[in-house]
Amino acid sequence: MDSRPRIGALFAYDWDEIGLDRQRTRCRLDRAGFDLFSFPSNARLVGFDLGRFAAAQARRGRRRRWAGVVSNHEQFGALAAALVAERLGLPGTAPDAVLACQHKLHARAVLQRVAPEANLRFAALDADYGDDVPDGLRYPLYVKPVKAAFSVLAREVAHRDELHAHTRFSRRELWVIRRLVEPFERICRERLPEAGSAHRMLLEEPVPKAVPQFNLDGGVFDGQAHALGVVDAIMYPGTQAFMRWELPSRLPAEVQARALDVARRFLAAVGFRHGFFNMEFFHDPGTDRLTVIEFNPRMAAQFSDLYLRVLGLDPHAMAVALALGEDPAALPRAEPSAGAAASFVYRALSPGDVPTMPSAIKALAWRRAWPDGMLFCFPKQGHALERDFKWLGSHRYGIVHLGARDARELRERCRDASAMLGWPLPYAQSPTAPAAGWEAPPLVVPVPAK
User: Fold this and answer.
1) Less packed terminus of the chain by CB within 10 Å, N or C?
2) Which of 35, 73, 34, 81 is nearest to 57 (CA)?
C-alpha cells in the first residue's frame, strides 16, 4: 500500500507543476483548477464561483483523505486552498489573512497602522469603472486595481487625461475584469466586509523608476515568520516591466532584516500564522527608504528553482511541509548547483517587436542543449495580445531559467541560449560587460536550522 500522504494541488501550472513534480517521492497529488493563460482551459472562467469550487474540493479532499492542500496561484488558488484547509481542519493560511493581503487597499490601511514608515501615500479612486475621473487629484499618480495579479492595469499616469484614458474599458475588457475579480469579491463581502469592494482602482504615490525593486520570500510556522531570501528585480530600462529576477541578492543584509521586520508586523496584524508569503518592496539606496509594494499570501513559485540552485533550499518541498503541518526548517538542504541563477523574461514593448515563437522541434533542441534550463513560451494573438499591451504595457512571450558558476558565466549562457531561440538578450548592458554588483557574496537571511 502507498503510504505517501495525499495532497490537493490547486491551480498548479508552469513552475508549480515542475516544483511539485520534485515532491512525487514524498506525497501524492490530486490536481484541480484551470490555467488562466491557455485556451480552452481558461474558458472555465465563465461562471466560475470560488466558493463553490472550494466546497467541491473540500468534499473531494474528505473523500480521498487529503493530508494537506497547497496552491501558489495568486488569482484564485491561494484563497481556494485556504478555504479548503479551513473546511477540512488541515494546516493552512487563514482565509481572512489571504483576503487582507490580496485586497490591496485594505492591505495599505493595515500597513499604515503597523509600519507607516514602509508605506506609500494611497487613496481609493472615487469612481466606478468608466466614470469620469474626479477633479482635485495631484499628479503624477500610480494607479492599479484593488484586486489583480501580474501588474495588470498598473501604471503611472502624469495627468488627468491620462488617468481618464487608462480607466476606459471596452465591453469585452469589462467582461474579463469582472470575472477575474468577482470570485474574490463574493468571498470578501462575506468574510472581510470592512475592506469594501474590490471592483475599483487604487491610487498610490509613485516611486521613481530607477529605484530598485526586490522580493522577500519566507514562511510562517507556528506564528513565527522566517525569511527564505531576497530576489532582485531588474526592469527593462525606463519601464516597470520585469526583465529578469536574480539570485543571489545585492541588497545589504541590514536592509533585508528591516524588510523581514516589516513583514512580521504586517503578517501578525492580518492574522497570517501559517504558510508562505512574498513581499514585494522598493529600497532607495540614496535615501535608504524601504517601501512595500504589496504582500502576496503564497510562495513566489517562479523563484523556487533559483533558491534550489543557489542556496540548496527547495521552496516547493517547504510548501508541502507547511501543508502537512511540518516545520520546513527541518528539511535537509541540498548541495547548491550554481553560484548565480536568474529568471529571464523576454518581453515585447511594442506590437511590432513580437518575435516568432520557436517551433516544437526547435524548443526540443533547445532543451537538449540546455538540460539544466527551463523554457516557457507564452504566445498570444488577437484580442489577448492587444489586451497585454493595454493592460501591461508590454507582452511577455517567454521566460528562461538558467544557473551558472557566477554572474559573468550566467550572462554568457543567457546570450547563447537566447541566440538559439532567436530572442533578444534580456540585459540592458553590453553582453560582454561585467554585471555590476554581482561579485558580492550572497546576502540572504536564511531559514534558521531547527
Assistant:
1) N
2) 81
Burial class of residue 297, CB neighbours in 10 A (0-12, 13-18, 19+): buried
Question: Per residue in 81-119, pLDDT tens?
Answer: 999 999 999 999 999 999 999 999 999 999 999 999 999
C-alpha dihedral sign at 210, 303, 92, 228: negative
Between residues 174 and 88, the one the model is more confident about? 88
Instruction: Tell me the backbone φ, ψ of residue 176, rounded to 5 degrees.
Output: -65, -45
Q: What is the β-pairing status of strands 68-70 and 6-10? A: parallel
C-alpha cell at 283: 529600497
CB 51 within 8 A of CB 28: no
Q: Averaged over 136-140, what is the pLDDT?
A: 94
Cα separations in angstroms, 374 against 298, 356, 370, 414, 423 = 22, 18, 8, 12, 15
Q: Residue 449 above 70 pLDDT? A: no
Q: In angstroms, how far is CA 126 from the centroid of its own chain?
A: 27
Asked whether the beta carbons of 279 and 263 are under 8 A apart, the reply is yes
Q: What is the mean pLDDT of the chain?
A: 91
Q: Which helix (H) or strand (E) holds 8?
A: strand 6-10
pLDDT class of 54 with cuts at 50, 70, 90: very high
- The answer for 14, left when phi > 0, alpha when psi is -120 to 50, beta otherwise, is left
Work out whether strand 275-284 and strand 289-296 pair parallel, antiparallel, or are unpaired.
antiparallel
Rg of the chain over all Cα atoms, to the nearest angstrom: 21
